[in-house]
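thought: fold this chain, then report.
action: predict
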Amino acid sequence: MSRTEGQDREVSGGYAKGEAARQRILEAALAAFGEGGFKGATTRQIAEAAGVNLPALKYYFGGKEGLYLACAEAIVERYRQHMLGPIETAQGAPPADALKLIVGALAAMAGEAEAWSGFVMREMAEPGPAFDILYEQVWAPGVSLVALLISQMQAGRATAGSARIEALLLISSLSVFSIGRPVTQRYLSGRDDPARFNEILRAVEAQIDRLAQ
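observation:
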């Protein structure tokens, strides 16, 4: 049997088939793309890290760009799974309370978001094939929701433009929980415990209270 035939057999009926293999490839790709970007990461590197062969990667994602876009879609899906419940709970609550609930849920994503923070930061710094997916399905809707709540909190005192700017500033402050976590942890004497998390979260909530005044 030729090498190609053996690889095809692995793809169609071996270890590489199934959701577990697909998930391993995605996790390896998120790490590789986050470190090297779309151009720097190679499919061979990703396949080796995931424990599959190159035909398996092509079987599931069609190639490098398909895998890159699948990483963006995976981030969107994880974001939706995490945020759907808090957003539904926030409906009908006073705007300030709703915003605190949503901000708390975003901050609580920090641990999971570390897995894809490198990927997201690269797309922000150098927009690539995945930028539109992340912008249209995560960033823009998220900022719009926060801006709407700020506008409601300020009862018409804020213009649409100023509410959007305040929303961007508030969401940016949440970076201390995710991409800014190494700096935050070191600056705050290496503490990275629930008490410190709650202390920072209270400071962010105080920002919301000031916006509501």
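thought: worth noting. The chain has two domains: 3-62, 71-212.
final: tokens above.
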